[in-house]
Design goal:
With 485 residues, the chain is mainly alpha-helical. It has one domain. Helices cover 64% and strands 2% of the residues. The strands form 2 sheets. It has a two-stranded parallel sheet. Strands 3-4 form a two-stranded antiparallel ribbon. Strand 3 and strand 4 form a beta hairpin. Helix 12 packs across helix 19.
Length: 485
């Protein structure tokens, strides 16, 4: 039965789905039983994905969490996981694409740019260092990003359900991570940053940041497009505190900057006095708490902040961009990526491949012999794109991103603008944009939610009406337009 998308949004709340939450928690906990439990879980999720589009999207979001699970809990050796996650991805893709409405009038604006990007990236991979590996990675990216965008677009399922589903998954991860705060397993990666039930502190920080931002901005701006049930806000303090404890500076800075930009534009341009009053009250209360905290515990807070910045291995005494400085690691990555780009500015090294001079780690499946794991740690999205697919590929990818970002920034509500900005900003330090086998899958599902939320307002539509209006797409004017509507 088809459900009216906008009508359902106005009637329902965004809340934690308790029944689904208990099921998700059970699936994550069952991995403790055996090394093969993860493989059995992926097989079950692949079968579940074949039932419907909704089940396929659910399976994809859960696969990201299962893949990232803390090795101190589930073990370092989990047979067949790497191969089965791709089986799940393509099973879900076939189900989602098979159910989708591909009529010309129903095609989204991002579809053609995504197809063109895939074709250009494939063409460039032919002259790359490893065209087979690049080709496989391109297919994975197209399948993962396309499945997320098409699956959330399915009008049979109201957008509030998907918002509630993702909030529920986040709430389960946060809740299961609470006991680990008091256990060594919660910091097993480096004994410094908190990682909860996930594999490393950076993964935890990047995973939690979007939820923290969405709930914080929703709380400060009130009921505008969606009502967030009050019980959902109970996880907000822990989400921000655990994000800070993770020590993931990229995620915290991305979250803070996204909140600052969206709320600043609201204060300047919101036409509703009630909105400004609520926001000013919230910001004022937060500022008062900070001032009182600094007066009472200023020295302790200073030590905590210095520890957060240093992460146990960086120095504040040396230059910011020296090897021992706070930005030393990113500077090394930037130089390596830029050197790769200057070596092959028109074709790049190959989609998904390591930078020049960096060894490419490849893991092949023991049965079929195909590469199923080839991670690269490149960190900075713009430079990584230039290094991998050169200037022509970067232009085509920018067009695809613009097709998604324009409706979100022009027609989205503040909470979704902040959520979208967080998802983009984390890729300036922790590159998950192309990591469809782990955290990148969750990122693209949330990007799809932001896009569909903007389109559902009726102001994010592109076409003759949008072109005739002649609006300039800037953050300030777009956010103001969304609030005046």
């Amino acid at each position: 039965m088809c459900v009216d998308h906008v009508g359902s949004m106005r009637k329902a709340d965004v809340r934690v789905l308790w029944r689904e939450g208990l099921a998700v928690a059970g699936l994550l906990v069952v991995q403790l039983a055996s090394d093969y439990a993860g493989a059995a879980l992926f097989v079950s999720l692949a079968v579940w994905a074949c039932r419907s589009t909704r089940n396929a999207v659910q399976s994809l979001s859960l696969s990201a969490v299962v893949t990232l699970c803390n090795p101190a809990l589930v073990g370092d050796h989990r047979p067949f996981i790497t191969t089965l996650r791709w089986v799940l991805l393509f099973a879900a893709t076939l189900r989602i694409f098979g159910d989708a409405d591909w009529r010309p009038k129903a095609r989204p604006g991002w579809l053609t740019p995504l197809i063109v990007f895939g074709a250009v990236a494939l063409a460039l991979s032919v002259v790359g260092r490893d065209w087979v590996l690049s080709g496989l990675k391109i297919c994975v990216f197209l399948a993962g990003a396309g499945s997320a965008l098409v699956g959330i677009r399915d009008r049979r399922y109201p957008l509030t359900y998907w918002l509630s589903w993702f909030v529920t998954v986040y709430a389960v991860v946060l809740s299961l991570s609470v006991p680990l705060y008091f256990m060594s397993a919660g910091r097993s990666r480096n004994q410094v940053g908190f990682q909860g039930i996930l594999g490393q502190p950076q993964a935890y920080g990047v995973f939690v940041a979007p939820l923290a931002v969405y709930l914080a901005v929703s709380l400060l701006t009130g009921r505008i497009q969606f009502r967030v049930h009050w019980t959902t806000y109970l996880i907000l303090p822990w989400s921000w505190y655990s994000l800070f404890e993770s020590g993931c500076r990229t995620a915290l800075l991305a979250a803070g900057f996204a909140v600052l930009v969206s709320l600043s534009s609201i204060l300047l341009l919101a036409a509703r006095a009630r909105v400004r009053t609520r926001l000013l009250f919230g910001v004022g209360a937060g500022a008062a708490v900070c001032v009182i905290g600094l007066m009472l515990y200023g020295g302790d807070i200073r030590d905590v902040m210095i520890g957060f910045l240093q992460k146990g291995r960086y120095s504040l005494e040396t230059s910011l961009f020296s090897p021992e400085g706070l930005g030393g690691a990113r500077v090394f990555q930037a130089r390596t990526l830029f050197a790769s780009f200057t070596e092959r500015p028109l074709t790049g090294m190959g989609f998904g491949l390591a930078a020049a001079g960096v060894e490419q780690s490849i893991g092949n499946d023991r049965i079929i012999g195909l590469p199923v794991s080839a991670p690269t740690e490149q960190g900075i999205l713009p430079l990584a794109v230039l290094a991998q697919i050169g200037f022509p590929g970067a232009i085509v990818l920018a067009v695809f991103l613009y097709a998604i970002a324009k409706p979100v920034m022009a027609g989205g509500r503040p909470a979704f603008i902040a959520l979208f900005l967080t998802l983009m900003f984390v890729n300036l330090g922790e590159l998950i944009f192309f990591a469809l086998g782990s955290g990148g899958m969750q990122m693209w599902l949330l990007v799809a939610v932001c896009y569909e939320a903007a389109m559902a307002t009726g102001r994010g539509q592109t076409g003759s009406q949008s072109r005739s209006s002649g609006r300039v797409l800037t953050l300030a004017t777009s956010t103001g337009a969304a609030w005046r509507g």
